[in-house]
Amino acid sequence: MNPVLGSVATPVAAVAAAVVAAWLSVGAVERLARRVIRARPHGHGPGALLGRCRRPLLAVLAPVALLLAGRWFRWAGDADGVVRHTLVVLLIAATAWLVYRIASLGFDLGLARYTVQPRDAARVRRVRTQADLMRRITGALCAVLAIAAILMIFRTVRAVGTSVFASAGLIGLIAGIAAQSTLANLFAGMQLAFGDMMRIGDEVVVAGEWGTVEEITLTYVVVATWDQRRIVMPASAFAGKPFENWSRRDPAITGTALLHVDYRAEITDLRRRLGEVLGSTDLWNGKGQALQVVDSTPTTLVVRALMTADNAADAFDLRCLVREELAAHLRDEQPTALPRVPVGAAEPSVGTQAEPSVGAQAEPSLESSLRGG
Fold first, then answer.
1. Assigned architecture for domain 253-337
2. For every residue of the chain, which 3-state class applies, written as one string?
C-alpha cells in the first residue's frame, strides 16, 4: 500500500470508527436511562427529556474515542500535539455542555413530578421560578469552569498562574467595585426567587403599570403588561423598593366600580341590578359583592360597587361590565338619577329690576341677620 495513502486512510478510519462507537454508546446509554426512568411525567415522556442529552453525550464520547484511538498511531506527524490539544478542548467544552443538560434534565424531571399531582398554584409557580433560576446558575457555573479548565491546559497560562493567584485579592477588589451593580442584581435575583417575594406568573404593579411576571433571570425581571408591552427592570429594583404583588398567596382580587348619581337615585334598585349583572356572568366568582354610597358632593352621590373575581384580568373585565350595565340601567330605568350639571341663574337685563322671591320677602337674608339688620 502507498505510504501516503496509508497515512491518510488510518486517521480517516479511526475517526469513522470513533464516531460509530460514540453513536452506539449513546444509544446504549439512552436505553439504560429509559429503564431507570420508569415514571412518565405529565406532558413529558422520557424520550422527550432524554433526547436533549443525546447530542452533548455524542459530543463527549466522540473526542474520547478519538483520543483512545490516537494511542496506537500519530495524527499527521508534527500536527499530533495540536490535534490532541484540540480534542481535549472539545472534550472539556462538551463535558460542560453535558453536565448542564443533565442538570436541566434533573430540574425538569423534578418539576414535572411536582406538578403532576394537584397542588397549590402559588407553590407550583414558586418551584418553577426556583428551578428556572437554578438552571441559569448551573449554566453560568459550567461555562466558567469550562473556560478555566481550557485555559489551564496551555503552558503559558499555567506559567502565569502563580502571579495571577498572588494578585487575586486586588483583582477581586477591583472587580467587586466595577461590578457592584451587577452583583447587586445577581443577589437580588436570588432573593426574589428563594425569598418567595415574586414568582413567574404573579400579577404585580411596578412603575405604575400592572402586568404579569414573565421571566426572572439572575439580573433582571420581565413583566408583560396587559397591552402586550414588556417592562424590563433590574432585579435590585424589586428587592430594594416596595411593589404590589396581587397573587402572592391567592390570585383572587376585589374589583371596584365608581358611579356618580343624583341624590334622587334609588340605591336599593341599583343594588338589586348589581346582583343581577354579577349573577349573569362567569367573571364573578360568587364570593362577595356590595354596593355602597361612599362619598357625596354638593350635586351627586358617589356609589361604589364591589365584586370579587378569581384573578386581576377577570376583575378588570368585570369592573367594565358592571360600570356599563349600571350606567345603562340609570339611563333606562332611573333617568332622574343621572348627574345634573348646575346652571347659575340668568342675570336681569339692563333697565329691569329683578323681583325678590317670596322667600326673600318673608325672611331677612343671612347676611342681614348677622349684621343685625
1. 2-Layer Sandwich (3.30)
2. CCHHHHHHHHHHHHHHHHHHHHHHHHHHHHHHHHHHCCCCCCCCCHHHHHHHHHHHHHHHHHHHHHHHHCCCCCCCHHHHHHHHHHHHHHHHHHHHHHHHHHHHHHHHHHHHHHHCCCCCHHHHHHHHHHHHHHHHHHHHHHHHHHHHHHHHCCHHHHHCHHHHHHCHHHHHHHHHHHCHHHHHHHHHHHHHHHCCCCCCCCEEEECCEEEEEEEECCCEEEEEECCCCEEEEEHHHHHHCCCEECCCCCCCEEEEEEEEECCCCCHHHHHHHHHHHHHCCCCCCCCCEEEEEEEECCCCEEEEEEEEECCHHHHHHHHHHHHHHHHHHHHHHCHHHCCCCCCCCCCCCCCCCCCCCHHHHHCCCHHHHHHCC
